[in-house]
Amino acid sequence: MFLEDVQILNFRNIREMRLEFAPGLNVIYGPNAQGKTNLIEAIYMLVTGRSFRARSERELVPWLVEDYEATVIRATVTREGVRDRFLMSFNLTQKYVSVNGEPLRRLGELLGRINAVLFTPAELNLIRGIPQGRRRFMDLCLSQVSHRYLHELQRFDRVLRQRNVLLKQHRERRDLANELAPYNLQLAESGAFIMLTRANALAALSELANRFFARVSARDEFLQLKYLPSFEIGEEPVALAALEAGLLEALAKSFREDLLRGATSVGPHRDDFVFLLNERDAKLFGSQGQQRACVLAMKFAEVEYIHNQVGELPILFLDDLMSELDEERRRALLANLPSGTQCFLTTTDLKLVNDALKPERVFRVQEGRAYPQ
Ligand code: ATP
Ligand code: MG
Description:
Distance between the termini: 24 Å
Order of helices and strands: EEEHEEEEEHHHHEHHEEHHEHEHEE
Bound molecules: adenosine-5'-triphosphate, magnesium ion
Structural class: alpha/beta
Number of helices: 11
Radius of gyration: 22 Å
Strand order of the largest sheet: 2-1-4-5-6-7
Strand content: 15-25%
Shape: globular
């Protein structure tokens, strides 16, 4: 994938930016608080439809623009020789997205059109944070490469909400167990597909991540990503039919508990995975630098994974990659950037990049403006 150009109007401290990018390494540098992450954030809005760090559009609207009408983000992306034009515009009351002039009915329809992998310092939460963040990572990665996955995920969420409403509001009904049966069937069907896709993807990501990790890690360390489903699924590899039967059984078994809690306690919405370093949980035993390297390894693995799945390299966004890494790791890392991908790298210190790599294009960002160098 090749992001040729963007135009950004009224996004946080960016009043107006028009930038043309190179197919290889694009470096964005400047002091703190100038708009480097804002630029990445704006572009990444076109990947998922939402900001990776704001809870609502309200935060993205510029504070000080008096004649503000709307925020606009445009981009041209080439994929296998086909050029697509993306447009997103929003203000405090409306949001509009189109591709090649055709409006999209839902934000979800954006997913998979621009394949991208994002690393920011906040991604350390993938290790340290709650399981929801890890499920979100899986869902974003897999929805990008499989329409079926996105479809099953949406279906699962819908049925889950309906089942939970029954559990909460109709718990005194005598035949509730029977009423839940068709919901359980649907949950088991979609849920098994989601779980199997996650299990397979994690196995692949684990191997790719470890390979990368071995190259950047100074010591003899072994990285594994281990899937932790909400109920016992037996030895891998598991078959879809067996998973479906297993989930159905687990749902039936948890009926009493679900009734007490008014919620469904088993299924992919309760999945998790862990990072293991030499078989120990990196969340508990990894140093800050090790945790960072684990997440990076997983992100670089994601690049390969997406490449293998869709046959095209995703765009890689690396925000503030260099901070907190010692010099040796920094060098090893830069030397091992996935090759052939279009990469956007932000830094406060251009010299750190120039010492190790030859960027194709460099932009200096200052007070919300970008200057090609
Ligand atoms: P660092 O090197 O510290 O990561 P950065 O260049 O990535 O810095 P950004 O996060 O892109 O910095 O930009 C932050 C700036 O944007 C802050 O100075 C902040 O005041 C400003 N900002 C954030 N939201 C808005 C907004 N809604 N309107 C105007 N300015 C905003
Ligand atoms: Mg930043």
